[in-house]
Design goal:
This protein is of the alpha+beta class. It has one domain (about 30-215): Immunoglobulin-like (Sandwich). It has five helices and ten strands. The chain has helices spanning about 1-30, 65, 115-125, 145-155, 210-215; strands at about 45-50, 55-60, 80-90, 95, 100-105, 110, 160-165, 165-175, 190, 205-210. It is globular. The protein starts with a helix and ends in a 6-residue tail after the last helix.
Length: about 220
């Protein structure tokens, strides 16, 4: 009788443990799906160049509910993902081949978008003092990054080289904000070197992130 009770208790504990671990395992196996963009000027944080017909919109994924689209917990390794949306309402294409972006914090620290290699290195060697909410390490692959994480990093980044007439391009840029407690407060996003169809540089885009932080919460 005691043997049967012990066996039942062991099985029950095993099932409970498996259920507790299931969310973690599911996160590790998640496949990234790019959000469907709105027109750029629909985002509270945007800069519209009405004369040129080009608008840059930003949507930081700094909150846990929004960041749940990712399998990697980027905030745990010091990055903030920003969804970058560019809408071209004009009749001519614009080139992003030479475009450069940077996040400038309130204390004027200039942060360029992280490269894939930057993100890989940070995942495998996170900041020593950074938070860690994962109860289990991710299954590792060559280089210390899972295949799902590699696919996500490659597929989520903003990669458009041009924006065709009457179209929208989008993607994420990841910024290293490790050590900055409130990186978006007072920060500004700049996009330079956007060229028109004749190769002329458009006026630079500047988006205060306070527009995002102060926007009314969605119901």
């Amino acid at each position: 009788m005691l043997s049967k009770l012990w066996h039942f208790s062991t099985v029950r504990l095993s099932l409970v443990a498996a259920l507790l671990l299931l969310p973690t395992l599911c996160v590790g196996g998640k496949h990234f799906v790019m959000p469907t963009p709105l027109a750029a000027k629909a985002y509270p944080a945007h800069d519209e160049h009405a004369d040129e017909g080009i608008t840059l919109g930003l949507d930081p994924y700094d909150l846990a509910d929004k960041a749940s689209i990712f399998s990697v917990r980027y905030s745990d390794v010091g990055f903030v993902p920003i969804f970058v949306v560019i809408t071209n309402a004009s009749d001519q294409p614009v080139s992003l081949t030479d475009a450069t972006a940077e996040l400038v914090t309130v204390d004027r620290t200039k942060i360029p978008p992280a490269t894939e290699d930057d993100i890989y290195r940070r995942i495998t060697r996170p900041p020593a003092s950074g938070p860690s909410t994962s109860p289990l390490p991710w299954p590792k692959k060559k280089g210390g990054v899972t295949k799902d994480a590699q696919d996500e990093i490659q597929n989520s980044q903003f990669a458009a080289r041009a924006v065709e007439p009457h179209s929208t391009q989008c993607g994420f840029m990841f910024f290293d904000v490790s050590g900055i407690s409130t990186p978006l407060a007072g920060a500004r996003f700049y996009l330079n070197r956007v060229l028109d169809a004749k190769g002329h540089e458009l006026m630079y885009f500047e988006v205060p992130l306070e527009k995002y932080l102060s926007a009314p919460s969605k119901p």
